[in-house]
Every structure is written in C-alpha cells, then in structure tokens.
Amino acid sequence: MSVTMAQIDRRVDSAQELESVTHTMKGMAAVSVRHFERAADAMGIYESTLDRGLQVVARHLDADDVAWERHSRFPPRRSAVIVFGSNQGLCGPVNRQVARHAAEVVAACPTSVFEVVAVGFRLSSELELTGVPPDVVLELPNSVDGISPRAAELLVRIDRWRRADPNPAVHLVFPSFRGRHAGFEPADRPLLPFDTARLRELVGQPWPGRSLPTYTVGRTELLATLVRQSVFAGLTRTFAQAMASVAASRLVAMDNAQRDVEERLAELHRERHRLRQAAVTEELLDVISGFEAMRE
C-alpha cells in the first residue's frame, strides 16, 4: 500500500512530539537520580553518626547488662518482608526483578512470614505474579521530602508488629542503587532484630577523636533511642536507594526510547525524501513528455 506525502508528514510530526516527550522525561529522571542519590549519601552519613553514638554506649555495656541482652535474648518467631519498587511503569525490569528476589527471600525465611508490605503500586502486581501477594500496598514517594513521612509510617507499622510479637524479624528487599550508568541490582538486608554483633564490632573500633564523649541519660534509654533512630535511618536510606534505582532505570528506558524514536525519524525522513524525489521525477517526466508531444 502506497504512502502519501501527507501521511509521512503526519508520522514525522508524531515522532517529533514523542521525541520531545522522551527528552523531557529523560531530563526529569536524570535530575531525580541526582536528588535521591544525595539523599541516600546523606542518610549514610547520619547512620555513621549513629554508629558513633552506639559505640559510646556499647563501651559501657557488658554481657549481663539488660540493655545489651534485650535485643538478642529472644530469637524471632515470625517474619515480615518490606519490598520496594515503583508506582508507575516506564522504568525497565526493576519491579519484575525485585519481585522475583522477594519471592526467594520469602521462601528462604526460617520463620513463617506473617505480612508482606509492597511499597509501590506497580510492584504489587509483580509480586502477585511471583506467588507472593502483598498484604499491604503503600505508595512510593515522588520526592525527597516525602521519604521521611513514609518511613515514619512504616516505623509505626513495625511498632505495631512488635506489640504483637516482641521480637519479629523484618527484612527489606529493594533495588540497590549502583550508579547512574551501572543501574541497580536486587538486594535484601535484615532490619530487625537489631544485630548485637554490630555493637561488639563498634566497641573494637578506634574512636576518631582525642577524647571520648559522655552522656547524662540512662544508657538503657539512650540505647533504645539510638537503635530506633538506626532503624529509621535504615528505612530512609532504603527508600532513597530504591527511588534512585527507579529513576536510573527510567533514565535508561527513556534513553533507549529516544534512540528508537531518532532511528524512526531518520527512516521517515528518508521515506519522505524518496517520495519527494519520486514526485519531482514524475513531474519532470510529464514536462518532458509534453514537450516531446508538442515538438512532434
């Protein structure tokens, strides 16, 4: 079926509009990657500061201290899994890969999993396809400002779990950000119970300053506060890493889409040039034929 010049022009206009959209979305994704990457780095610094506080408290704990033993006395009996993905599509295979990794984590849990929380509307459908339907679906924030409120919401949910079970195991499954060009890889890490081996490791580390700080509040209260802040910081950094990974995946997807659109535009321009040349050739042949007829 022959294509007219008007049809080619309409296709070129549509492709140019699509190219403009992909270019805009690519720029927005690049900006988002940078913002979320900075947020993750900032929370990493905050976690290092909390480690220094835990190091100070841990120096005054011994094996018989209630504040030390309260975090490791009872082994977990049940587990919860929090999975991070995306709200929307156009971000490559991030949701599918994270959902598959979450299914492996759930299958490998040594205790029964009583709740699966999906952070991201698009992720929930992928989890259902892998046989791990989420019990709760939360929205992934769209900006850095929305991370802390959503992390606080999860922290309230974790407190509710701990009231029902004093020592649940909470696992995080998320796309770990590896860089703007390296993309992501599915990862998991335990959030609770708090690793007391981490306290022993901190005690053995040298203090970065010349003098050790002290504190005036009770060490049990201070340790509980630092542990809670450490959990909150871990949640917040996981949010930032997941959002950076989603933005980086969308950046790669938009880059590929823009490349495809540019190739399609080049094909349409060649087709339009061919049709234009054919029309010019046809007109020239008509002129020559008319001239030959008049001369005869």
Automatic annotation (TrEMBL):
It holds the Pfam family ATP-synt. It is found in: Membrane. It comes from Candidatus Neomicrothrix subdominans. Transmembrane segments: none annotated. One of its GO terms (molecular function) is proton-transporting ATP synthase activity, rotational mechanism. Keywords: ATP synthesis, CF(1), Coiled coil, Hydrogen ion transport, Ion transport, Membrane, Transport. It comes from the Bacteria. The keyword Nucleus does not apply. Belongs to the ATPase gamma chain family. Produces ATP from ADP in the presence of a proton gradient across the membrane. The gamma chain is believed to be important in regulating ATPase activity and the flow of protons through the CF(0) complex. It is a peripheral membrane protein. GO terms for cellular component: proton-transporting ATP synthase complex. Residues 251-278 form a coiled coil. This is F0F1 ATP synthase subunit gamma. InterPro entries: ATP_synth_F1_ATPase_gsu (IPR035968), ATP_synth_F1_gsu (IPR000131).
